[in-house]
Amino acid sequence: MIKKIKHQSSFAASVFLLALWSGTALAADGQWYTGSLVSPSGAEAHAGLVGIEPYYSYTQPIGYFNADGSSHPQHPRQQTFSNSTMWKYGITDHLSIQAHTVVNYGWQNGQGHSSGPKFGDFPVDMVWRFVDPNPKKYIPAFNLFAGVYFPTGDYNKLQNKQDANGTGAYVFRMAITEQSTYVVNGHHALRLRTWGWFRHALASTQLEDVTSYGTGAGFHGRGRPGMSGQTGFSLEYGLNQAWVLAFDLARDWANGSRVWGDDAHGKHIDRIAASSGDWQIAPAVEYSWTSRMGIIVGSAIYYAGHNTGVKVSPQFAVNMVY
Predict the structure, then answer these.
(1) Closest listed residue to residue 95, CA positions, set 50, 55, 143, 60
(2) 122-131 and 141-150 as β-strands: parallel, antiparallel, unpaired?
(3) Keyword annotations for this protein (predicted)?
């Protein structure tokens, strides 16, 4: 069943893009954007620009996808409130540096609450726009991301499983993105983004007792997160200069983490968790009151996958460029 869903999603997306492409013209000038909920933005347009974009989200699981992709109810449900703020600075007209600060608060019936807001791991990336857009020749902008997650989130010797917010490992990540803007229906701007992320842990980490890897009291060993990534595309359709309809479709995947060591009874453990994956859509509405200030409101909906939660995550963000 899950394979059928994936094929239908890919086919529908292709048909929709071809239909829009058939009526496009050169890029529209003057449209204001905040950027969609999921797609990564490229390098800042000019040196010296500072971009700040805080996201606020609430994640509510409503079920769970089994290994075969079938879903079933989930109780109790892990709930999370998060703030993720992107900070970006234009070093040159083509090179930017960006970072994300992430703060989470989680709770689950029978599992308690976080012992206060918890910082997650801290990603820092360099963003290089290596191809400038040329609308007259239908050439899109291309950006290359390369960076590292710094292990700043709690992951080891936890008093409460709800405090787990990191992996303890330095994780390399890279991405390539494409962005192009066209005119459809005579005068409405349509912006298309496509992207692909890849993440790989640079080393394992020491684990003691209760950790984010699912170990219990008395465990002593090591752990390493599995490779992971994301691919997707977004569409942003301008109703007028200030109002935009946004839509993301993305596929996430992750190999299972490896844990090895000895438990409290001296039993040796060496296991690799099951891989997981999901499909998500994220419809949203953008409103910008200037070319550098705007807000986006929408929700990510995880509608298919395996070994992961069926989730709904309403969220909003404020985009500011100085």
Answers:
(1) 143
(2) antiparallel
(3) Signal
Q: How far apart are CA 66 and CA 74, in angstroms?
A: 11
The number of beta carbons lying within 10 Å of the beta carbon of residue 132 is 11
Six token digits for residue 228: 């992971």
Identify the residue whose tokens are 């060591």. 261
Segment 216-226, tens digit of pLDDT: 999 999 999 99
User: In whole angstroms, what is the distance from residue 244 CA to residue 237 CA?
Assistant: 5
- For 12-46, the pLDDT digits (tens) are 444 444 444 434 444 556 899 999 999 999 999 99
**Whole-angstrom Cα distance, residue 136 to residue 164?**
50
Q: What's 251's domain CATH number?
A: 2.40.160.40
pTM: 0.89
Q: Quick one: which of 319, 234, 238, 248 has its CA closest to 280?
A: 248
DSSP 227-264: PEEEEEEEEEEESSSSEEEEEEEEEEEEPPPEEEEE-T
Q: What is the residue range of 71's domain?
A: 2-321
H or E, element range at 4: helix 2-21
Quote the CA–CA distance of 304 and 164 in Å, as a whole number.
Answer: 25
- 135 in helix, strand or coil? helix
The tokens describing 71, both together, are: 């879903």
Give yes or no for a contact between 122 and 166, defined as CB atoms under 8 angstroms apart: no
82 C-beta neighbours (distance < 10 Å), count: 19
In the block, tokens 């980490």 appear at: 205
Q: Are 155 and 166 in contact (CB under 8 A)?
A: yes
As a dihedral over the C-alpha atoms of residue 181, residue 52, residue 318, residue 16, rounded to 10 degrees, the angle is 20
Split into its structural domains, the chain has a count of 1
- The one-letter amino acid at 24: T
Compute the distance between CA of residue 256 and CA of residue 274 in angstroms, rounded to an integer.
5
Spatial separation of the C-alpha atoms in residues 22 and 25, rounded to whole Å = 9
Which positions ≥6 away from 158 have C-beta within 8 Å?
164, 209, 210, 211, 212
H or E stretch covering 15: helix 2-21
